[in-house]
Amino acid sequence: MRGSVRAAALATLVVLLAGCQSQAGPADAGADAEAIRAVEDAMRAAYKAKDAEALAALYAPDATLYSASERPRVGAQALLEGLRKDMTDPAFAMTFTTGKTQVAASGDLGYSRGSFTVRYTNPTTGAAAGYSGYYLTVFRKQPDGRWAAVEDMAVPAS
């Protein structure tokens, strides 16, 4: 079941990214890529501060967050509740490094990909645990012009 959810999610991301081309896009593609990087900087700051509300505000209302350890968090309420739960864990920490950011020629979709490390308390053992892996986040330009994450997927490296 977990594998089919990952496969379906990955297929969705591939379709969304089909419009992202490596050729030069619209004149503001550089500014849009920089705006996406600024959203990721705000995400890093929110993770560091363990500010679930600030982090959730960087996602679109219909966003989905996928992780290896649980079912997808779909929509603003599920995302916020899950982030609040994560951040109450004293051992919780998330760091990530962006490897690539790209914007579709249409100017309304973009993505970033890179690596991450997450730390948390293992609910079974109570011991500190964690893993590293890779992520892919799809961003969509919102009606108000800001960029927000709409699909966020993280997979372990091993």
Features:
158 residues; alpha+beta; Nuclear Transport Factor 2, Chain: A; 6-stranded mixed β-sheet; 4 helices; 6 strands; 35% helix; 39% strand; globular; disordered N terminus
Sum this structure up briefly.
With 158 residues, the protein is α+β, with helices and mostly antiparallel strands. It has 4 helices and 6 strands. 35% of the residues lie in helices and 39% in strands.
Task: Walk me through the structure.
It is a single chain. Helices cover 35% and strands 39% of the residues. The chain has 158 residues and is α+β, with helices and mostly antiparallel strands. It has a single domain (2-15, 34-156), classed as Nuclear Transport Factor 2, Chain: A (Roll), CATH 3.10.450. It has a six-stranded mixed beta sheet, with helices on both faces. The longest helix is centred in the N-terminal third of the chain and has 21 residues, at 29-49. The relative contact order is 0.20.
- CATH topology name, in short, is Nuclear Transport Factor 2, Chain: A
> Count the helices. How many?
4
- Measured as a percent range, the helix fraction is 25-40%
Question: What integer value in Å does the Rg equal?
Answer: 16 Å
Q: Runs with pLDDT <50, length 5+?
A: 1-27
Query: In CATH, what is the class?
Result: Alpha Beta
Identify the CATH architecture.
Roll
Q: Beta fraction of the residues?
A: 35-45%
From the N-terminal CA to the C-terminal CA, the straight-line distance is: 19 Å
Number of strands: 6
What is the arithmetic mean of pLDDT? 86
Structural class: alpha+beta
Integer count of domains: 1
What is the overall shape?
Answer: globular
